[in-house]
Design goal:
mainly beta; Immunoglobulin-like; four-stranded antiparallel sheet; 2 helices; DUF4198 domain-containing protein; signal
Length: about 250
């Protein structure tokens, strides 16, 4: 009996008395698109002890964005894998000596602060019990939208404007960097792009932008009749997936 009791106590010590390596895989996937990996700069992942706030692990997702056909064109059944060994991920090996409740967050795409979105979840980590395979997948909604024309705080002469108009031009991509084209996997025809316009702080209406025939590029024309300080906020809205994105800038007409 004593021998059995000693063996039982040793098992308890082995299980809970010493830190055990616990593998955790975290991925960030753009909504309606692919995984966020090396090609777009990655997602920055933080694994934090929920009670104490201690950071247990942190780092970038690295790897490819994944297989387009597999993720977006192939029917899936329960337990089907959407990733492989090359698909972007952050991997941590934590030393845990007790079950630990954690918050896992991802900010992506980390190299695009103006467009970056933070997503998070919480779960229990059990010592020695890996969270691997697909791992934890955090969805990152939105678009990356950049205003290309006019330039930030550009000063333009009213008399020099051709046809009294300014071109509005943007570059729009998915959060994983995937291209938007007419009739493509990410179809420009289902995305509404418009500019909200203000002059001297007063709303002056909206201007539509249309796909320009080049990957990711949308253009429109803004009529200008008066001098002043202008602000444009250009948004993209996918009518099917409900993804959104926005960029803003100011320019001067003198």
């Amino acid at each position: 009996m004593k021998h059995l009791l000693s063996t039982f106590l040793l098992c308890l010590v082995a299980c809970y008395g010493f830190a055990q390596s616990t593998k955790v895989v975290v991925r960030a996937r753009a909504k309606d698109a692919k995984f966020i990996g090396t090609g777009i700069g990655g997602a920055y992942v933080v694994i934090r002890h929920d009670l104490t706030g201690e950071i247990l692990a942190q780092g970038l997702t690295t790897g490819t964005s994944g297989n387009t056909d597999l993720m977006l064109k192939t029917p899936h059944q329960r337990y089907d894998r959407l990733t492989d060994d090359q698909t972007a991920r952050f991997e941590a090996n934590l030393k845990l000596d007790a079950p630990t409740f954690v918050t896992i967050e991802a900010t992506a795409p980390i190299n695009r602060k103006s467009a970056a979105v933070k997503a998070s979840t919480q779960l229990w980590l059990i010592p020695g019990k890996a969270i691997d395979g697909e791992g934890i997948i955090l969805e990152i909604p939105g678009f990356m939208l950049d205003i290309l024309e006019p330039q930030t705080h550009q000063v333009l002469s009213l008399n020099a404007l051709k046809d009294s108009q300014i071109k509005l031009k943007i570059n729009l991509v998915m959060m994983c960097g995937c291209v938007i084209t007419k009739g493509g996997v990410w179809n420009s025809e289902q995305i509404e792009v418009k500019a909200f316009v203000k002059k001297d702080g007063v709303a002056r209406g909206e201007v539509p932008l249309n796909f320009a025939g080049m990957d990711n590029i949308f253009e429109g024309s803004l009529p200008i009749k008066e001098k002043g300080m202008y602000e444009v906020q250009i948004y993209a809205y996918d009518r099917i997936t409900k993804n959104t994105g926005l960029d803003r800038m100011n320019f001067v007409i003198q």
